[in-house]
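Hi V.,

You were right to ask for the full record rather than a summary. Here it is.
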Amino acid sequence: MIDGANALTEVLGVTPTPLTDGLRKLADDLPEMRLSEGVGRLHRERFWADIRGSRLTPEEILLLVRDHFRALPPEGLLEVGAEPETPTTLEVGGTLTLAVPMRGHVQVRVQEVTSRVITSVTLEGHFFAGVIRFLTEEPDPGVIRFEVRAYTRAADQIDRLAIRTVGKVAQRQTWTTVVEEVVQRSGGDAPDGVHAEDEVVSAQEAREVEAWAEALVTERKREEAPTPG
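Predicted structure:
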C-alpha cells in the first residue's frame, strides 16, 4: 500500500482475482482421479429403492436429482456447494465442491448426463478414487427403481483404513438418505425400503470398469475441447 493506494493495482497494474473466483478456478483445474490410482480391490456399492405410485416419470426423477442434488444428502454428512459460487446442480462438466466431516472439502466432476443416468468422477485430493452414478429404470410395470451406484477404491492406505471404519458408515447413511429423499419427493413410496449392497468386483470386471471410466472422461474432454480454427 503506497499513500493509501493499492500497490498491486496502482503500481504493478495487476488486477487481483477474487478469492471465490480463485478457489473455483483451482477446483475446475483439478484432474480426475483414475480408478487404477486407488489402492486395494475395487468395490461396487449400490443403494436403491423400488418406487410405486410416483407422480413423476423415471426421467423426471433424474431431473429432480440433477437440479436439487444439494438438498438431498443428510445435513452434517455431506454439504454440496461448500465453496461460495460453486455449482450445486449436476450438469456435464460441472465441478462440485463437497464438504465431508473430518475430511474438509473434496471435489467431483460430472461426466455424463442422460435421461436416465448421471455419472460423476472424483478429482485429485478426494479420499477415494471413484465413480458415482445415479440411475432410474423400470424393472416391472408400475415400478420405478432409483439407484445410487458407486465404484470406489481408497486413495491411499490411510484412507483405506478410514473408509473401512467410520467411512463406510457415513457413506451408507449418506446414500441411504439420498434415496429416501428421492422416494419422498417423487410422491410415491417404497414398501420394501432402501436396499444396500457392497461387494468386491472381480479383477476382470475391475479392468472393464477402469477402462469405461477413463473413456467417459476422455469423451467429455473431447466434446468440450474448442474446435480448431
